[in-house]
Specification:
The chain is α+β, with helices and mostly antiparallel strands and 262 residues long. The protein folds into 2 domains: 79 residues, Orthogonal Bundle (Arc Repressor Mutant, subunit A), CATH 1.10.10; 131 residues, no CATH class. It contains 9 helices and 9 strands. Strands 4-7-8-9 form a 4-stranded mixed beta sheet. A 3-stranded antiparallel beta sheet has the order 1-3-2. The radius of gyration is 21 Å and the shape is globular. The N and C termini lie far apart (52 Å).
């Protein structure tokens, strides 16, 4: 079986080159697929933080086997022109075949971001913005996992309890508001919650995340997107309690992530 190689004679990083190795997927392999389904894209260093392997070298080799031999993982070509592919940790995503494998095992995991699996018509942020959202949200989930008495509440769990009209909407994250007399919508980059155990009683805080990569702090035209306008829009949403009727959640805070240097 021919093995695809790069210009330096090394096994290609982006072209699948199976060697005929027979793999039996382990529970950890299945969990890797579940995490990729939840977030869409994760780098190998993200996966190492999640799984804390005893041998990082063997873990990276296993990711390579899952890519080359099973076809359940993909190494997106879109990362190649943006990074030094040999110096930057490899990025992975689950393939349609991988999703089919999880479906055969039973219920799919709850998504942490709505763009992890979506219809062609739905919104998908640009790649660098996507990775900013994923990294910020993953940090929050890992922090909750490491904190006794906390549980991360993913967006699919929130939407499963939202009103039927929201669940059936083209974009269930788009919540209507009236700003400066105009009817518009707020669409957070991510929606999540944190469950707290307080003296045996469960409490919840819910958050709309906005990651600012390119939007300016303010604009002279108030109809255009800016950090100031987003803050104003979320204040209107919170004052009107519109999040209760749209998402069915009891509270909402804005988690605004500024771009580096801002």
């Amino acid at each position: 079986m021919a093995v695809a190689k790069d210009s330096l004679g090394r096994r290609s990083r982006f072209e699948r080159s199976p060697r005929g190795k027979r793999l039996s997927l382990t529970p950890r392999d299945q969990e890797i697929l579940r995490w990729l389904y939840r977030y869409r894209y994760l780098r190998q260093d993200h996966l190492m933080r999640i799984f804390k392997p005893k041998s990082e070298k063997r873990f990276v080799e296993r990711l390579g086997d899952l890519f080359h031999e099973t076809g359940y993982l993909n190494r997106p070509q879109l990362q190649a022109p943006l990074f030094d592919a040999r110096a930057t940790p490899m990025l992975y995503e689950i393939t349609t075949k991988g999703v089919g494998y999880l479906e055969a095992l039973g219920e799919l995991p709850l998504r942490a971001v709505t763009f992890s699996r979506r219809s062609r018509e739905s919104y998908s942020p640009q790649f660098l913005h996507t990775m900013m959202i994923i990294e910020e949200l993953l940090e929050i989930e890992l922090s909750a996992l490491a904190t006794e008495g906390q549980r991360f509440v993913p967006v699919d769990e929130i939407l499963a309890r939202a009103p039927e009209a929201t669940q059936s909407a083209k974009n269930p994250l788009a919540v209507p508001v009236i700003l400066d007399g105009r009817s518009t919508h707020i669409i957070p980059d991510a929606l999540y919650g944190v469950e707290y155990d307080r003296d045996g009683q469960k409490g919840y805080r819910f958050y709309a995340m906005e990651c600012e990569r390119t939007s300016p702090a303010s604009r002279s035209d108030s109809s255009l997107s800016s950090t100031v306008q987003k803050k104003r829009a979320y204040k209107v949403l919170r004052d009107s309690q519109g999040f209760r009727g749209h998402w069915g959640i009891p509270n909402l805070e804005l988690n605004l992530i500024p771009r580096k240097g801002q």
